[in-house]
């Protein structure tokens, strides 16, 4: 994992912003890996979900990016959210 980007695609550091929506990682994800986990190399913890790849600049080249786990976790607290597993039982 290389860092976080905000909604304006600017780099942000944990603890300096309340929103850490995107994670940038060093390798371009292989085709079909969207939706897969982004793992922290040191701890093995899931820190996000793969979304795709993006060219950041001519110097940095193409990098993988995804949604941060913090951002995904917040979705589960939205009013009216019903997980698909519960919808089947209703």
UniProtKB/TrEMBL annotation:
<protein>
    <recommendedName>
        <fullName>Serine protease</fullName>
    </recommendedName>
</protein>
<dbReference type="InterPro" id="IPR009003">
    <property type="entry name" value="Peptidase_S1_PA"/>
</dbReference>
